[in-house]
Amino acid sequence: MPLVNLADESQCVSFYDAVRIGLGRSQGLFFPKVEELPKLPVDELLAMPFAQRSGVILSALAGGDISIEDATEMAQQAFNFAAPVVAVNEAVSCLELFHGPTLAFKDFGARFMALALAKAKEVNGDNRPSTIVTATSGDTGAAVAAAFYRQSSARVVVLYPQNKVSPLQARLFTTLGDNVQSIAVNGDFDQCQALVKQLFNDAEAVNHLNLNSANSINISRLFAQVCYYFEAWAQLSTDKQNRTTIVVPSGNFGNVCAALLAMQLGLPIKRVIAATNSNDTVPRYLQSRQWQPSPTKQTLSNAMDISAPNNWPRVEALLAHNPELGGRFESVSVSEQDTVEALQALHSQGYLSEPHTAVAFSAFKKQQQQGEHGLIVGTAHPAKFAELVEQILGASIELPKRLQHVIGKAELNQTMEPDYQQLREFLFDYQ
Ligand SMILES: *Cc1c(COP(=O)(O)O)cnc(C)c1O
């Protein structure tokens, strides 16, 4: 059994069980046994096409629980859009992860998870659809809803704070219908998340609804994200391959954990920098060794407004097993003012971006070493944050087709008070 529960090491499970269960005993996260992860033949891998290479990586991460053939086929289906490395200037490039159906990097993880969950059910002889309930401030809900839309393996329920997700973003999940339901909760994101937590603590609901979560605690999402870091290296010139540092705009620290996993597997990343906004629990922790989340602050990069990053135990597990990684990992916080200035600086260099990516750009400027090339991770398309970006840059943004086509569609969401009983009844009534 290749995956271990980080909160209770007596629980080891297969990859497919981890996908089905989501969270282990004592709320523990599943993770590979770091000491058992192989070093991959990087040169050979970088010469392969994306899907085939991803098949090898995914199979290795899952300890062989998925065959290379199956994993390649899943990668082919899930990652059917580009992840280009685009030059910003001499010293900086952007790994653009926003060319999927919902224009954010979460499409990679969500699409792979949808395939992995279907496969997990097949392996387990379980043909009862799962209920996937997810709280979102935007990107997760859209990616998960799109990935599971019209899949018989699951029904998706997206909870989001009413009037606090941009109307355009909300339309990516409120207009779908079929097996995707959306509920605008009259409250804030924390209240949505609290409702979901309560649901997972309700044993009867978990069982009756065959409940699953699609947030970044699901190990399949994390594994999918390792693949695009290798893809980035395949695109870098050999001159840059040994002097490139990855800078990841971070909230729950899933994406940056995937970069560290890629490093553990042998990808020659110079350093990994986790860039946060003013929700700086991790940068403070790395200085003081005190874990002291403060109340969450609202920022321009709102998908990163998280003060207790739920993937942190995974990062710690990696660093604990491999101190060398620790020497090549750091985390920096970026102020609102610096975010605005970074967005403007990018624009003046001819690169139109958005606030999350701008946080990474600013962090790299602060930390850059002599001769180092920075690969900032572009986590969302500028059009997803069009209003904000237009306001800051005074430039107008053209909406890509995928966003244009949801504008005319009817919204099918319900509205609800942040009331657990009401949510429970709503979920139980659906057959
Ligand atoms: C989710 C998200 C992030 C944060 O990613 P984590 O894996 O949670 O650290 C950053 N940028 C955007 C646009 C996101 O949607």
Short description:
By secondary structure, the protein is of the alpha/beta class. The chain is built from 20 helices and 14 strands. The mean pLDDT is 94.
Overview of the structural elements:
By secondary structure, the chain is of the alpha/beta class. The chain has a domain at 83-101 and 221-398: 3-Layer(aba) Sandwich (Rossmann fold), CATH 3.40.50.1100. The chain is 45% helix and 16% strand. The strands form three sheets. A six-stranded mixed sheet has the order 4-5-13-10-11-12. Helix 12 links the parallel strand 10 and strand 11. The radius of gyration is 20 Å and the shape is globular. Pyridoxal-5'-phosphate is lined by residues 104, 106, 139, 216, 249-255, 303-304, 356, 379-380.
Q: Which structural class do you get from the secondary structure elements?
A: alpha/beta
SS elements, strand count: 14
CATH topology of the domain at 83-101 and 221-398: Rossmann fold
Determine the N-to-C terminus distance. Answer: 35 Å
Strand content: 15-25%
Question: Any ligands, ions or cofactors bound here, and which?
Answer: pyridoxal-5'-phosphate
Largest sheet: 6 strands, mixed
Low-pLDDT sequence parts? none
Helix count from the secondary structure assignment: 20
Mean pLDDT: 94
What best-fitting shape do the alpha-carbon axes yield?
globular
Give the helix proportion (percent range). Answer: 40-55%
What is the CATH class designation of the domain at 83-101 and 221-398? Alpha Beta
Query: What is the annotated CATH architecture of the domain at 83-101 and 221-398?
Result: 3-Layer(aba) Sandwich
Instruction: For the largest sheet, list the strands in their spatial order.
Output: 4-5-13-10-11-12
CA radius of gyration is 20 Å
Domain Tryptophan synthase beta chain-like PALP: 96-372
Pathway: Amino-acid biosynthesis; L-threonine biosynthesis; L-threonine from L-aspartate: step 5/5
EC number: 4.2.3.1
Cofactor: pyridoxal 5'-phosphate
